[in-house]
């Protein structure tokens, strides 16, 4: 007598996890958001896929993550443009999904394929993602999540340099004075990291933009 139907399902490969995550995120289109039941189903799929991704990246408490799978996952996330979806869909995700996304984001950025941080390189080719995260400080529902993601990005000189030299940087002078204390404090933490993490980058920026920064500082 066969009991094959009791066998546990085969664990997904990194590629399958990324593909499933991409499909579930893309399901959050305008039409889906309008249809409550469809939205709920899409959210459930996203949360399930994020949990799977999180376990693959950091283990489940009993089994340590497989280093090769982690690198493959990071590579596929870039190949499939999933990083773009993770950022742009963040504002409409539920709390648990956002929490898992932020956790995965910090691990993904640290993955080095050969001598390259593949996810950082991807963001270097899509700097608009950083602008989007900065602007999200205006949305108190996701501001703290975006703040964590930004500070993870700022750990890398090339990404910190972009934010400093972009028009988005000026927004921090506004965000640190927002009426919501938690958001303003978080924005200040990000602002501080931008000006202290990479002294050479900051020195070059201040040398070129001292008058602008000074004007903003005295007006705060």
Automatic annotation (TrEMBL):
It holds the Pfam family Mo25. InterPro entries: ARM-like, ARM-type_fold, Mo25. Belongs to the Mo25 family. This is Calcium-binding protein 39. It comes from Citrus sinensis (Sweet orange).
């Amino acid at each position: 007598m066969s009991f094959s139907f009791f066998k546990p399902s085969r664990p997904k490969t990194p590629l399958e996890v990324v593909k499933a995550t991409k499909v579930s995120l893309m399901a959050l289109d305008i039409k889906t958001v309008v249809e409550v039941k469809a939205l709920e189903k899409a959210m459930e799929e996203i949360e399930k896929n994020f949990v799977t991704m999180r376990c693959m990246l950091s283990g489940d408490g009993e089994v340590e993550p497989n280093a090769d799978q982690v690198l493959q996952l990071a590579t596929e996330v870039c190949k499939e443009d999933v990083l773009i979806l993770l950022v742009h869909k963040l504002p409409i995700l539920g709390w648990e999904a956002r929490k898992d996304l932020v956790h995965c984001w910090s691990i993904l950025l640290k993955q080095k394929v050969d001598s390259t941080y593949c996810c950082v390189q991807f963001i270097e080719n899509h700097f608009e993602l950083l602008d989007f995260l900065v602007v999200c400080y205006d949305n108190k529902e996701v501001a703290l999540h975006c703040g964590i993601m930004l500070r993870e990005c700022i750990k890398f000189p090339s990404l910190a340099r972009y934010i400093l030299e972009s028009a988005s940087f000026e927004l921090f002078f506004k965000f640190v004075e927002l009426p919501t204390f938690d958001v303003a404090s978080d924005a200040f933490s990000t602002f501080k990291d931008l000006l202290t993490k990479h002294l050479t980058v900051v020195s070059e920026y201040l040398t070129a933009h001292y008058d602008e920064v000074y004007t903003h500082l005295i007006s705060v």
